[in-house]
């Protein structure tokens, strides 16, 4: 009975005396075992899959968190300012308490005790900088609300932008006592050779907007008195990171570790960012991450091409399409089927290769 049942064995055994081991067989066996182990690891890594699909973004009234870490190695913090303005005209001055400015020495190392907060009560805010090109001309001889009175230097320098640079320059020569701010000039000279690092985040409305790093408009003439020309105001910068929202596994921020270094002259940087709302649903009932991805294009114009002070602008738009990533686990049966296919397939192919190599070797040596 036992012998009859043994006839059902599809794996007949050969006697040890009839087995012949070869060096080529050992090589094929090692390769076979390595390949099986590698494919098994890949199969395990693919046990959890991430599915993605696109939907229309129906969220309304939400806030957008913009994380920033940018270094300006050639300009001191005393002349730089960060501002943000959205499409509805709302300024983000009250929503950037976490933004810090850190003074850097010539080697890029932080100076002791050189951290400044950009809280509205502690920073010099640029009001409606995005809109200044569209503002109506104001009589430079009078201060609004004070007929006949001379405006202070800061107000005059704010009003004389692109259309009136020549007139502003002429008035600065005719009225040096009005335009020259010795205190501001000395403050700038004191920080010459320093750099500045901005880090933190700002909270804005989830609509299109702009945030930018610009030179203090109130110090326009003081800046030119120290730096002599707009070309000397080097806005070279290193973008360590810029992201919108919270990070998630595998998230890519294309502007990360971007180096924009100007060796000659200066200019006006503009980054146009397309923000895509993103939902990441991790496996195991963990908290869903509502965040954003983005892509960008950039434009650079030199100070010879545009009659503006050098600056770095980031214009962002919100996409109406939302990306959704969700993790799912493969079924155990599917995983075991794949594992058996790997082991059986590799073992079979390796046996065929070993047999062919052995026959060829035997034929050539006989």
TrEMBL record:
Domain spans labelled Endoplasmic reticulum vesicle transporter N-terminal: 6-90
Domain Endoplasmic reticulum vesicle transporter C-terminal: 183-354
InterPro entries: Erv, Erv_C, Erv_N
Region of interest: Disordered: 133-154
Compartments, as annotated in UniProt: Membrane
Keywords from the UniProt entry: Membrane, Transmembrane, Transmembrane helix
GO CC list: COPII-coated ER to Golgi transport vesicle; endoplasmic reticulum; membrane
TM segment ranges: 25-45, 332-353
Pfam families in the record: COPIIcoated_ERV, ERGIC_N
Lipid bilayer topology: Multi-pass membrane protein
The family this protein is said to belong to: Belongs to the ERGIC family.
Protein known as: Endoplasmic reticulum-Golgi intermediate compartment protein 3
